[in-house]
Amino acid sequence: MERIGKPRGDALLLLILAGMLGIGLSVLFSASTYYGDRLFEDPFYFFKRQLLWVTLGVVAAAIAAHLPLSFLRQATPFLVVAALLLTILTFVPGIGQPIMGARRWLFLFGQSFEPSEVVKFSLVLYLAAIFSKKRDRINDPVNSLLPPLLVVSLFVTLIYLQNDFSTAFFILLIALAMFLIAQVRIIYFILLSLLFVPLGGMLLFTKAHRVRRLMAFLNPLADPSGSGYQVIAAQTAFVSGGFWGRGLGKGVKKLGGLPEAHSDFIYAVVGEEAGFLGAVLVLLLFLLLAWRGYMLALKGKDSFTRYLAFGITSTITLQALLNIAVATGLVPATGIPLPLFSAGGSSMLITLMMGGVLINLSRQPQEQSHRETRLSLDSGWRD
Q1: Consecutive 10-residue averages of pLDDT for the chain (383 residues)
Q2: SS (H, E, C) 220-266
Q3: Distance (Å, rounded) from C-alpha 224 to C-alpha 56?
Q4: What is the largest CA-CA distance in the chain?
Q5: Could you tell me how far CA 158 lies from the centroid of its own chain?
Q6: Which of 24, 125, 20 is nearest to 77 (CA)?
Q7: What does the alpha-carbon distance between residue 48 and residue 53 come to, in Å, rounded to a whole number?
Q8: Model pTM?
C-alpha cells in the first residue's frame, strides 16, 4: 500500500525533458559535423562526446531522482565546498587553461570541465537549504542575510575573475531571484539591487570585448565583418529558414558562416533548418518545463522543496531564454549555452542532474489544497 500510495513523479515533466534531449541531440548532430570535420577530422566528434556526457547525465539524473531529499540537503555544504575548490583550480597553471580570453575550464585526463556549471546547482541548493532553515528569521541582516550574501559574492567574484562576466551576472541574477522568493524584506532586496546593478554596469566596461559586444548589439552593421558578424549571421539564418525551414541537415550557415553554430548559436541552426515553427516549438518546450517546475514550487510540501524547485526551474529556463534572446539579437552576446542543445559536457551533465532533482521533487507528497484539507479533516472528525 505504501508503494501504491507513493507518487510516481511528473510524467509530463519527464516527457518534456526527454523530448528536448532527443531534439537537442538531433540538432547538435546537424550543427556540429562541419566543425568536427574541420577541427578534428571527424564529423561525429562533437556528437560522440555529447553522447558520452548524455549517458553520464542520465545516470546522474536517475540517481538524483531517487535520492532522499534529506541526504541531498545534508550534502549541501560538501557540494558548495567542492564547487569552490573546482572554481579555484581554474586559476592553477596546467589545470586551468584560458580559452578565448576566459579561464573557466579545467583540463584533466584529456577532458575539459566547467566548474561554473557546478556552482549554479550547488548555489541553488545552498540558498534553498539556508533560506528554509532560517525562514522564521529571514530578515535578520546579520545571521540570515549576511552568510548567503557572502557566499554568493565569493562565487560571483571568482567567476568574474575568470573573465566570464556573463556567467557571473547570470548566477547573481538567480541568487537575487531566490532572495526575492524567500520573502526577504523588500527594502533589503532594493538595497542589494542598488549595490550590484550599478557595480555590474561599471564592470561591463572594464574589458574591450564586452564593449564591442554591446556596440554590436546596438548596431551590428557598424562592424559587419567584426563584432557584428555573429549577430548578422544568426539573423540571416533565421530569415533564410522562413516558416517551415530548409530541413534538418540542410542548413548552410552552419558551414562556417555562423561561428559557434554547435554551441552558443545553435538556436540559429534550429531557426534555419526547422524554420519559425521549429524555433517556436523549442521555445514552447522550455516554457512547458517552466510551467511544470513552477507548479512544483507552488505545491511543495515545505519551504526547502519550494525554494529548490523554483531555483532549478529558473536556472534552466532563464538560461534558455537568455541564449534564445542572444541568438535572435534581443540582448548582447553572452556565451551562455542553450541547455540540452548546445555542445558542452559540463552543461549537459548538470542540467540533466537538475532535471533529475525536479523529478524527485515531483515524487514527494505535495501540499493539499484548502478544500482537500477541509474534506480530510471533516472525514477524520466523522470517523
Answers
A1: 56 94 95 91 92 95 93 93 92 76 74 88 95 80 81 92 88 90 81 74 68 73 72 88 90 86 92 94 96 93 93 96 91 87 92 96 69 36 36
A2: HHHCCCCCCHHHHHHHHHHHHHCCCCCCCCCCCCCCCCCCCCCCCCH
A3: 40
A4: 78
A5: 19
A6: 125
A7: 9
A8: 0.89
